[in-house]
Amino acid sequence: MATVNKAELAIELGRAMQEMRNKSRQTIQLRMKENNMNLTFEMLEVLSCLWRKNGINQQEIADITLKDKSSMTYLIDNLVKRNMVKRVEDENDRRNKLIYLTDEANNLKAQLYPWVTEMYTVATEDIDADDLTTCLNLINKMVGNLP
After folding, report:
1. What range(s) does the HTH marR-type domain occupy (predicted)?
2. Alpha-carbon torsion (108, 112, 114, 117), positive or negative
3. For a Cys staple, 90 with which of 18, 31, 32, 96, CB 3.0–4.6 Å?
């Protein structure tokens, strides 16, 4: 059997991470559809970012979610229409708008979080927590090695 080099293994790891992302996305989208939620997965990514750090600007959200500014404007506009977020003028810079969650978005988190927890519990049921920590550290190191 031919020896696989580190670059080939890294390529396979990247492919596997993309497959995990796609499967988790499909699972969450199916749950949202079953519960008649009028949200896209991309909107959920924005909300998730704000659940971790509420009251940040559009560019910070774009950087965290790896979206371009025009896509982010569209997503936030749609979340405003759905009463999930609101734009608030930054007291320190009036040109800047901070994005805040509404009560409706915070209530949505309480509904979604158990689904996400269930999905990842199933995905990791036969995986040791130390292995997950090692994998996370490895991926963070690989990301840090890139320019």
Report:
1. 6-144
2. negative
3. 96
